[in-house]
């Protein structure tokens, strides 16, 4: 691994994060709505004196560029500010919610890659067969259906017709005093529907991409050579073809991570999953600027890190790229 290239990628990531911070700050501050009005409503008074006092207390009376400079310098020191609504440090709020979101996104990502690639490989084995047609139709439907619609349909299906899985929350109240194993199984039970909802659209994309990549690779000379040497169909598919066909899948997996995080906001709202998406949704309704910007900053940082790791894994998987800057 080229250390210079890695440092350069990290440097680009930091510059990108600075741009994201500035853009998020300006877009949120220029959006309609006055957080002082929301806070004053919670305090039971909305006179001009009260509003002016609130703006002064939270620094909202300063010029917007001054607020931006203060915000950037605070972030550089690891301070994301204090929530207007929760009266708590944003870093603490995110720390409480990041675990459920990461769990949801990672499980959905793994589920979508495993199922999607498996379907794509099976479909590529016989391009004109029944399985290939099924995967193509499923991928088209899965890609076209909105994630929130899938979640609502699953809730309707499993809330009344087949009450097998919980349809909201992350854990059962009656198991709060149970053993660690029982709690883990309970969380996994609650995770099935939201993770599958989030994974459906992406596993459809992986199925289409892996099918196309496999078909291209299976027509290569080295695959014909492997078959001529007597390699079994399984060895040809999974040992020789899948490794090269996985390169574009790795790239898309890193790019899809940002989409998964944004999709998690909708899924967490539909299934009342206590993650960052739910926190962001509640904060938007309350005009809680520090919390909104903190969640966006954290989500952006995860996406940038995921892209760097994807780039590194791509170079590890393809030896031809290791010597290039």
UniProtKB/TrEMBL annotation:
Q: What is this protein called?
A: ABC transporter permease
> Does the record bear Cytoplasm in its keywords?
no
Q: Which family does it belong to?
A: Belongs to the binding-protein-dependent transport system permease family.
**What Gene3D superfamilies does the database record attribute to this sequence?**
MetI-like (1.10.3720.10)
| Claim: Transmembrane is one of the keywords in the record | yes
Pfam family of the protein (one): BPD_transp_1
Ranges where the ABC transmembrane type-1 domain occurs: 98-314
Membrane topology, as annotated: Multi-pass membrane protein
**Entry's transmembrane regions:** 12-31, 102-122, 134-167, 187-204, 247-271, 291-310
Which domain of life, per UniProt?
A: Bacteria
Q: Which UniProt keywords apply?
A: Cell membrane, Membrane, Transmembrane, Transmembrane helix, Transport
The record's Gene Ontology cellular component field reads: plasma membrane
According to its UniProt entry, one GO biological process term is: transmembrane transport
């Amino acid at each position: 691994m080229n250390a210079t290239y890695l440092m350069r990628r990290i440097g680009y990531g930091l510059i990108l994060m600075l741009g994201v911070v500035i853009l998020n700050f300006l877009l949120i501050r220029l959006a309609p709505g006055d957080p002082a009005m929301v806070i004053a409503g919670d305090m039971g008074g909305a006179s001009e004196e009260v509003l002016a006092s609130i703006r002064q207390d939270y620094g909202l009376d300063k010029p917007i560029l001054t607020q931006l400079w203060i915000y950037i310098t605070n972030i550089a020191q690891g301070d994301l500010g204090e929530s207007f609504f929760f009266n708590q440090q944003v870093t603490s709020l995110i720390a409480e919610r990041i675990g459920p979101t990461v769990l949801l996104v990672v499980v959905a990502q793994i589920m979508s890659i495993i199922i999607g690639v498996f379907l794509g490989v099976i479909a590529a084995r016989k391009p004109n067969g029944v399985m290939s047609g099924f995967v193509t139709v499923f991928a088209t439907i899965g890609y076209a259906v909105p994630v929130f619609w899938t979640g609502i349909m699953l809730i309707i299906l499993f809330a009344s017709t087949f009450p097998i899985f919980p349809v909201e929350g992350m854990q059962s109240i009656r198991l709060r005093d149970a053993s660690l194993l029982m709690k883990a199984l309970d969380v996994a039970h609650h995770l099935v529907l939201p993770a599958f909802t989030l994974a459906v659209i992406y596993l459809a994309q992986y199925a289409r991409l892996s099918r196309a990549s496999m078909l291209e690779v299976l027509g290569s000379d080295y695959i014909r050579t492997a078959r001529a040497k007597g390699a079994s169909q399984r060895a040809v598919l999974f040992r020789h073809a899948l490794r090269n066909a996985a390169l574009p899948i790795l790239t898309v997996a890193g790019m899809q991570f940002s989409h998964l995080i944004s999709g998690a906001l909708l899924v967490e709202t539909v299934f009342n999953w206590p993650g960052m998406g739910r926190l962001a949704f509640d904060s938007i309704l309350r005009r809680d600027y520090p919390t909104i910007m903190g969640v966006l900053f954290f989500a952006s940082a995860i996406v940038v890190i995921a892209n760097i790791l994807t780039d590194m894994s791509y170079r590890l998987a393809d030896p031809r790229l290791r010597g290039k800057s």
